[in-house]
Design a protein that fits this description.
Layout (H helix, E strand, L loop, with lengths): L4 E4 L9 H14 L6 H8 L4 H12 L7 H16 L6 H11 L3 E5 L3 H11 L10 E3 L11 H10 L6 E5 L2 H9 L3 E5 L5 H7 L3 E3 L5 H5 L1
Parallel strand pairs: 1-2, 1-4, 2-3, 4-5, 5-6
Helix pairs in contact: 1-2, 1-4, 4-6, 8-9
């Protein structure tokens, strides 16, 4: 394979969490007096770290979200995960293929470490992610679309950025990978292909079964 490391986003790429988390987010923001539809949440917040939610709400309304916003939101999301979360179809097969081929991989997610762990445990993906293969926006100062998270993951895994490829499903994540100097494959399950291409995706694909061939 021509890449030394595959860095995967997590939400929407490995765990089918975006519909659940954005439904919760839209409902909670609306409850707090910031009317937000599911479509608004997908457009504005999908792929972003929590600080972006606070920043956009403040920018648009001049009002701060409650101090316990993150805790309440995550509590509701984790409860939804426990009830309904499933792995993305084909995710297990991709991981099995990478392990069989000896290809280094890791996760670089805007989600917190706790959110990543809950998602992996609930879906049974945790066995593919021992310590040292999971990186979160909590580990760096700025979340996506800044390149910091992906550069941190590459540095920790000991691979030069130009030898890395990122698998992402959001324009913010694609922009972060491009800013990091990495190739990026856009997964179109939640985002139209043209939006991922506009953000700078090297390739786009619609089915996880396509990914191993793209990585060769």
């Amino acid at each position: 394979m021509r890449y030394g490391l595959v860095i995967f986003d997590n939400d929407g790429v490995f765990v089918d969490s975006e519909p659940l988390s954005n439904t919760v987010l839209a409902g909670y923001l609306t409850e707090l007096g910031h009317p937000t539809s599911y479509e608004d949440s997908i457009r504005d917040y999908m792929g972003s770290a929590m600080h972006r939610i606070h920043e956009l709400v403040m920018e648009r309304t001049g009002r701060r979200l409650p101090e316990d916003f993150d805790d309440v939101f995550h509590g509701r999301v984790f409860a939804a995960f426990e009830r309904e979360l499933k792995p993305v179809p084909g995710a297990r097969e991709v991981l099995e293929k990478l392990v069989a081929d000896g290809v280094p991989y890791c996760v670089g997610s805007s989600g917190s470490h706790e959110r990543i762990r809950v998602g992996h445990r609930t879906t049974g993906l945790d066995r593919w992610f021992p310590a040292g293969r999971v990186f979160s926006s909590q580990d760096v100062g700025r979340g996506k679309p800044a390149p910091d998270l992906f550069l941190h993951a590459a540095r920790e895994m000991g691979v030069a950025p130009e030898r890395c490829v990122v698998v992402e499903d959001s324009p913010l994540g694609v922009q972060a990978a491009v800013a990091a100097g990495m190739d990026v494959y856009g997964f179109t399950a939640m985002t139209p292909a043209e939006k991922l291409r506009e953000a700078g995706a090297t390739e786009v694909f619609a089915d996880m079964a396509e990914l191993p061939d793209l990585l060769r």
